[in-house]
Each structure stands twice: as structure tokens, then as C-alpha cells.
Amino acid sequence: MKGLNMRVVVLTCLITLAAALSSYYYVYQYKVTDPLLARITQLTGVKDVTFTTVGNKRRIVLSLSASADLPDVHYVVNQCGAEAFGKRFGGVVIRDDRSAELAETYYQMHFHIQQGIATGQFTQMAVGLAQIAKQEQLDDYRVYVDTEYVYLQLSKDGSTLFELIPRSPETLQATSVAGGYAS
Length: 183
Hints:
Blueprint: H1 6-41, E1 46-54, E2 57-64, H2 70-85, E3 89-95, H3 100-119, H4 122-135, E4 140-145, E5 149-156, E6 159-166, H5 169-175, E7 176-177, E8 180-181
Parallel strand pairs: 2-3
Antiparallel strand pairs: 1-2, 4-5, 5-6, 7-8
């Protein structure tokens, strides 16, 4: 040990650690993130995809075009994210370019949506939503219902609103995220 220079030993350890961490990053990028990004960007209606980390969870953040099939895109991206990230998957966040007018229209519609969820009378909900969509002269309006969410897409004058309204308190706890919904 007489001939060892501590600076050289410490520097060698630091370089080795940096090389190991950077190789992990690039392998993770190559094996997980890049294939996931390629798969999601191929979906019809997906304009942009980014990944964020909140705590130890990875979220997929989507920007969609007005022509996107919200339930299908959401389902596929959710499945891909769960497969790629496993327990670290923090859900899907959908960003939109809603206008104040579309936000107000959604506010008017949300009473019908909550009533439909509470009573299970989704055909009545759809009638109420269609009346509001016609009254507000929306360019496009779509509503879908599955076992977990009511999906709502509204478009007017180049702006689009996407909402995923949870149908149960359990789904609500898993989905609420500032700036969008994760599921």
C-alpha cells in the first residue's frame, strides 16, 4: 500500500462509478424508453409523448390530436406503460389545448356526467350532453363509457378538451394528477 496514491484510487473509483451509471442509463434508454416511445408515437392521434418522474413513478404524458380515439389510445398506452415500467408505472397524463369556452362547456356537461355515473343512466347522460354540444355549436363531440371511465372529447375552433372522468372512488384516487389525469 506504500506506493498507492489515494488521489488515483479515488479518481479511479469515481470514473468506474460514472461509467457504470451512464451505461445503465443508456441500456435503460435503449431497452425500455426508446421502444416504448416508438410504439406510442405510432398510435393514430398521438402528437407528442414525454416521460416524467414523480417520486419513484414514471408517467407517460401525451398530447393528442382532435381525431384521436381517446379510449383506445388511453388503453393501449396504459398497457404499454405497465409492461415497460412495471411497479414504477405512474399512469398516463393527457394534455390538451382547451380554451376557456371548452372548459365552460365541460363545466355545464359535468353535471350530466356525474348524474350518469351515480345513476347508471348513461343514455340519459348522452342526451343531455348532446343538447349542450348542439347549444354550444361544438365542431366535434364524443363521449364513451367503459367500466372505469367516462371519456369526453370536445373540439371547437381549433381547441380540444380531453377528460377522463373516473366512475368509482377507487379509480379517482388512482387518477387525479395536477395538469391532467393519470391512470
